[in-house]
Amino acid sequence: MKIDSGTTAWMLAATAMVLLMTPGLAFFYGGMTRAKSVLNMMMMSFGAIVTVTITWMLFGHSLAFTDNPSSALNNFVGGFDALGLQSLVETATKDDGTGMPSLVFSAFQMTFAIITVALISGAIADRAKFGAWMLFSVIWAALVYFPVAHWVWGTGWLNTMGIEDFAGGTVVHINAGAAALALALVLGKRQGWRKEPMRPHNLTLVLLGAALLWFGWFGFNAGSELAVDGTAGLAFLNTQVATAVAVGAWLVVEKLRDGHATSLGAASGAVAGLVAITPACGFVDPWAAMVIGLLAGAICAYAVGLKYKLGYDDSLDVVGVHLVGGVVGAVSLGFLAAYPFLDQQSEGLFYGGGFGQLGLQVLGPVAVGGYSFILTWVIGKIIDKTMGFRIPAEDEVTGIDITSHAETGYDLGTVHASGMSSPNGPVTAPATKKVDA
């Protein structure tokens, strides 16, 4: 099949936009931590880029997107026909009529896997060993992400049943949110949680990160159509509409509840709206995107407080935004999915469809969330019992940037002089001039 240059050019751009989301997430998460943890937090996102890129190339694409109908495991995970992506090099274009090179499709999907793993890190800020995190990212991608992608987007059982997930509300956000909850429980609470202030140290970084995520999300959502057509335009518009409404909803909740509309609330509301519209962006009318954004902004604004009531330390609200927001978006399709964006049998309840699609949109989050939570808890426990997943308490109090990376995010002069060194030798405090009384 001849390569479609327009589609290929758009998908290359969309792939780069989605990859940019992970550095954007690093800024977003880094600004939300305390100053002594910012580098470690950002390194966890960059570490995910490294590990997931390699695992995707070696076997991830094969497990997620190849078909192995002769195997009893095909409903659960793909085969081994694309190990090392060599078969995609030999097959120049996808055989689905898009006219896009198979390697471009694989690169696009790789960026989804990367950010899904990176999202989990926000739940364990300040306290996870970097080496343990890198190992976890490899194992989790292999045992959780790749199979779930096959379930929903490959030839797995949820796809066969007819679940709808346009760009990853279930595969990415519910998957990562459930894993974040499990890992937060495995590692336990931060030292001083609820006793010491743990406010974001740099809200300008948070807003920068949110802006990069917002920009990259157009590639995430519109790119998931894998074509340059009206549905891609619909997904693009719905992404903007839902996100803007979600920001407004979050700020209204903050103003009514706390008396202040905050920049952190604006950034968090934007991400909540982006998350919720992700599974629905190509399947709903623009007015429905506004409803989804409104629900996501308001519900997630309250959901981030669940950790204080239930007692789990989700450092950067991955559960409240990504798990809850993903559920809002996925279930909304059972009500708001519209023909002609979908086949008539997949219409939502409000468009004359029955309860069948609604049931599937509930089953998906339950199945993926349950699987991700259980597997993540097991993986985390094994790593914790073998090499240890959490840094020592004294290192956490001192600051994970210094103790794990021998660096600090900011030049604070003599505040961190003790025990530090520079390329030019040890850093020492400047001599003080004696003043006579």
TrEMBL record:
The keyword Transmembrane helix applies. Residues 9-410 form the Ammonium transporter AmtB-like domain. It holds the Pfam family Ammonium_transp. InterPro entries: Ammonium/urea_transptr, Ammonium_transpt, Ammonium_transpt_CS, NH4_transpt_AmtB-like_dom, RhesusRHD. It is found in: Cell membrane; Membrane. The chain crosses the membrane at residues 12-31, 38-59, 103-125, 132-154, 166-188, 200-220, 232-253, 260-280, 286-306, 318-342, 362-380. It is a multi-pass membrane protein. SUPFAM superfamilies: Ammonium transporter. Keywords: Ammonia transport, Membrane, Transmembrane, Transmembrane helix, Transport. Residues 416-437 are annotated as: Disordered. It comes from the Bacteria. Belongs to the ammonia transporter channel (TC 1.A.11.2) family. This is Ammonium transporter. The lineage of its organism: Bacteria, Bacillati, Actinomycetota, Actinomycetes, Streptosporangiales.
